[in-house]
Write a structure and sequence with these properties.
This protein is mostly beta strands. The chain has one helix at residues 47-53, and strands at residues 4-11, 14-23, 31-38. The protein is elongated.
Length: 54
């Protein structure tokens, strides 16, 4: 699938978040996030929201 991507987010060389998304789904010029996981140590600090806004 050419429109599917995986992204890892690192803090101090440690993987703290991962997400996968598909572009142009379910319609043109949109993004569908299929998976978004955060390390428990950074939850409830607004970091997940910051990642999504990027």
């Amino acid at each position: 699938m050419k429109d599917k991507f995986f992204v890892g987010v690192y803090k101090d060389n440690n993987l703290v978040a991962i997400l996968d998304y598909i572009t142009n789904f379910p319609k043109e010029n949109s993004i569908y996030i299929g998976l978004f996981m955060l390390d428990k140590s950074i939850q409830n600090k607004g970091i997940g929201s910051e990642i999504i806004i990027l």
